[in-house]
Specification:
mainly alpha
Length: about 260
């Protein structure tokens, strides 16, 4: 049992070191992406279209629903305690700092991580990756880097989009449930916002984007030669991205309260 435990621990450490090395290679390839040709830039544009543009409707609906729910619940509960202004602190905390970035990460993981891992694993099974290597083309620079950049940028912009909708939409609803006018609403909202909250939200969105795109491309490249490996690559990428995003979210949140 001790031997098996040691093997498992050694394997986990080896996989973690490999993942860190792959992420470093991916970041360096992304920095040099400007020198790539039109084909790589086309991949970037198409990935932005799928991950960012096509996700805007569902993100706006989620943002409006969550922001409105927070205001409705906060207004009914906190007003009874004489702490109505805490509704805005709770709204900023949930929509911008905590739930917003994580929820967007889940949406992008469900939509894009599976697609990216499946696409790359299909290329592995079809020996297309071997053809790239044989012709002198680095698959990480040509295939993974544009997707890494596109998904990370998409998380960043979707998070901003989610925050704007989630914070502004309740200004209409609150007109019907309280005596607060729109000017007073935005004054209270902006007084609850802080630079620290905005920075934490941005950091989370960028890190989540790196985790999702890194996991998707990594498990796509690591697929075997059998066709049954294609759906398995998508499942592994999604599960790993979910777990790492939650761990990163907890770590960043705890660190933000400690510092």
């Amino acid at each position: 049992m001790v031997k098996q435990l040691g093997i498992i621990v050694k394997t986990k450490i080896s996989d973690f070191i490999y993942m860190i090395g792959y992420l470093g290679k991916l970041i360096s390839a992304s920095i040099m992406f400007a020198k790539r040709g039109k084909a790589a830039r086309k991949i970037l544009i198409m990935q932005l279209l799928f991950t960012y543009v096509e996700a805007l409707p569902i993100c706006s609906i989620l943002a409006i629903g969550i922001g409105t729910s927070v205001v409705l619940l906060g207004n009914s509960f906190l007003t009874s305690l004489g702490q109505a202004k805490l509704t805005y602190d709770m709204l900023v905390l949930i929509v911008m700092r905590e739930l917003g970035p994580l929820l967007i990460a889940f949406v992008v993981t469900a939509r894009s991580a599976t697609a990216i891992a499946t696409e790359i694993s299909s290329m592995v099974v079809g020996h297309e990756i071997e053809a790239y290597i044989a012709s002198g083309v680095d698959p990480i620079s040509h295939l993974a880097a544009p997707r890494f950049i596109a998904v990370t940028l998409s998380l960043f912009f979707l998070n901003i989009y989610f925050s704007i909708f989630g914070l502004m939409a309740p200004s209409i609803v609150i007109q019907f449930i309280s005596t607060t006018n729109i000017i007073e609403y935005f004054n209270n909202l902006f007084s609850s916002l802080s630079v620290k909250v905005i920075i934490i939200s941005i950091i989370k969105s960028i890190i989540f984007g790196m985790i999702i795109s890194g996991s998707a491309t990594l498990y796509g490249f690591n697929a075997g030669q059998a066709s049954t490996e294609i759906p398995m690559a998508g499942l592994r990428a999604v599960s790993k991205a979910f777990s790492l995003c939650i761990i990163a979210d907890v770590f960043i949140t705890v660190l933000s309260y400690v510092l």
